[in-house]
Design brief:
Elements lengths: L18 H12 L3 H4 L1 H8 L2 H26 L8 H9 L1 H34 L7 H4 L13 H20 L1 H28 L6 H4 L5 H5 L2 H19 L15 H30 L2 H10 L4 H10 L2 H34 L18 H17 L2 H30 L13 H20 L1 H12 L2 H7 L8 H4 L7
Length: 488
């Protein structure tokens, strides 16, 4: 190390995350509620089970291309903060700051809020939670925010965020173990759904090949069918969202130059396989026309309808419990990973300074965790997280594309490919993902200009903070640089 350590060992983040735990974190950061509900809207778009499965595979392969490419970047630029650190090293601090700010203002905190809210809704389906009277529930702020509506669900969601934040505050190892158990439970339960669906006598392989009514009209127009496939692929792509967040904990992964790329690769392969098998079971058990009706009715989740059909009313309870476990684990992982981004920003003088401190006993970014919990709770109370995420989600893919394009920049800057890990299929694989991110950004700007403009405005709320912090000196980096000396 070129610098001497200025802090004692108990004020450094601990490298306690093994390769197996990192793979689990990749899986648990992705699998939330999308695997239970996206098959219905995708079938309504494409009207063909075969094309629905193709859309899941295509979205998975595009995501894998991004993961493989970012893995090469992560093998050269390590430390807590992941994509923020990558962007800062490659493009400078301005782009990196607005990526980090967008994550705090909306993207990551809204993800915590929305996943926790789905957990609370699932609990409410099993055991109705108390609420205020209709008169109090109708009170609003500007006719937009209704803080007292569904208050029982909101309070449970906030309690979950606070409880899991406290767990993560006490130690990353304990939070990682919780993710391992919940992820194992979810994967086993999803495999049970696969076995139930594919072994059910009422199902048929003909359901896979039989399109829904109206497919002939859709397939007659090549451009319309392509647009439908792209829209369906985007729906699947949302279910893969979260893969990049494991890079935020590069400062706590053992041997990150080797283990982070491996975790991204094997974690993504596992998720693609799980999603394909589960959706194959759905489509085997239920004809496309029925899935279209579920989407149009907007009153039932596809997974619930399929399992109810197979095992009766008990299926509702089974799926509700499974969604509770899945969203519980996904909330925990999102909290664990997201806070490392704000910690990294604060260490470099580009966030609230106290967020850059490590707890002396637990060696976790405690203040960053509580900053995240506070704003996530505000978003839960406002009830506006879904709208905010929809408005700004396209921007996250713009940043992902910039991270992936960094493969080309780093190879040119460093005189060739790194010796540690090289993205396979270079330059096609990274360029494929960059092209997809560009198309997605243009598609959103063209198709939803209002949401895109509001999303950009939300990003720009970081301007006064950037002007305030841009000249602030970074904290001493010696404690991060000495981490490798303390690996277990």
């Amino acid at each position: 190390m070129s610098q001497s350590t200025t802090g004692s060992k108990d004020t450094q983040l601990a490298r306690t995350i093994t390769l197996s735990m990192a793979i689990v974190l990749v899986i648990s950061s992705i699998i939330g509620s999308g695997v239970f509900k996206k098959v219905a809207p995708m079938t309504a778009e494409l009207l063909s089970p075969t094309w629905v499965l193709a859309a899941w595979v295509a979205a998975g392969l595009v995501t894998l291309a991004g993961a493989l490419s970012v893995a090469e970047v992560s093998g050269q630029i390590t430390g807590s903060g992941g994509a923020y650190v990558f962007l800062r090293e490659i493009y400078g601090k301005t782009i990196a700051f607005f990526f980090g700010w967008s994550n705090y203002a909306v993207i990551r905190t809204a993800s915590v809020a929305s996943i926790a809210y789905v957990f609370a809704e699932s609990v409410n389906a099993l055991y109705p939670l108390a609420g205020f009277s209709p008169e109090i529930s109708a009170l609003s702020i500007g006719g937009i925010i209704f803080p007292f509506a569904n208050i029982g669900v909101k309070l449970l969601a906030i309690s979950l965020v606070i409880g899991l934040t406290f767990l993560n505050f006490r130690g990353v190892k304990e939070a990682g173990i919780l993710s391992q158990w919940t992820t194992a439970t979810v994967v086993i339960s999803l495999l049970i759904i696969v076995l139930l669906g594919l072994s059910w006598q009422g199902g048929s392989w003909s359901n896979i090949s039989q399109p829904a009514a109206g497919y002939e009209r859709l397939s007659a127009d090549g451009f319309t069918q392509f647009a439908a496939f792209f829209a369906a692929m985007l729906a699947a792509f949302w279910a893969y969202e979260g893969w990049i967040t494991v890079s935020f904990i590069g400062g706590e992964i053992q041997n990150p130059k080797k283990n982070l790329p491996l975790a991204l690769f094997f974690g993504m392969l596992a998720v693609i396989a799980i999603y394909l098998l589960v959706n194959l079971a759905y489509l085997y058990a239920m004809p496309a026309d029925e899935l279209v009706q579920i989407h149009e009715g907007k009153n039932k989740i596809a997974a619930v309808a399929v399992i109810e059909k197979i095992i009766g009313p008990a299926g509702t309870i089974f799926i509700a419990i499974l969604i509770c476990i899945s969203t519980f684990g996904c909330t925990n992982t999102t909290i664990l990973l997201g806070a490392r981004l704000y910690y990294a920003m604060a260490r470099r003088g580009e966030f609230f300074a106290s967020a850059g401190k490590v707890h002396p006993k637990y060696r976790t970014p405690g203040n960053a965790l509580w900053y995240q919990a506070f704003w996530s709770s505000v978003l839960i109370l406002s009830g506006s997280f879904d709208q905010l995420t929809d408005m700004l989600i396209f921007a996250s893919f713009l940043f992902y594309g910039l991270c992936t394009y960094g493969v080309f920049i780093l190879r040119k800057r460093n005189g060739g490919a790194p010796s540690s890990y090289k993205v396979p299929g270079y330059p096609v694989v990274p360029m494929l993902f960059v092209a997809f991110c560009l198309v997605l950004t243009i598609f959103t700007l063209y198709n939803k200009p209002g949401e895109a403009i509001i999303g950009l405005l939300l990003m720009l709320t970081g301007i006064p903070f950037y002007l305030k912090w841009k000249d602030r000196p970074a904290m001493p980096e010696a404690d991060e640089e000495s981490l490798s000396e303390n690996e277990s």
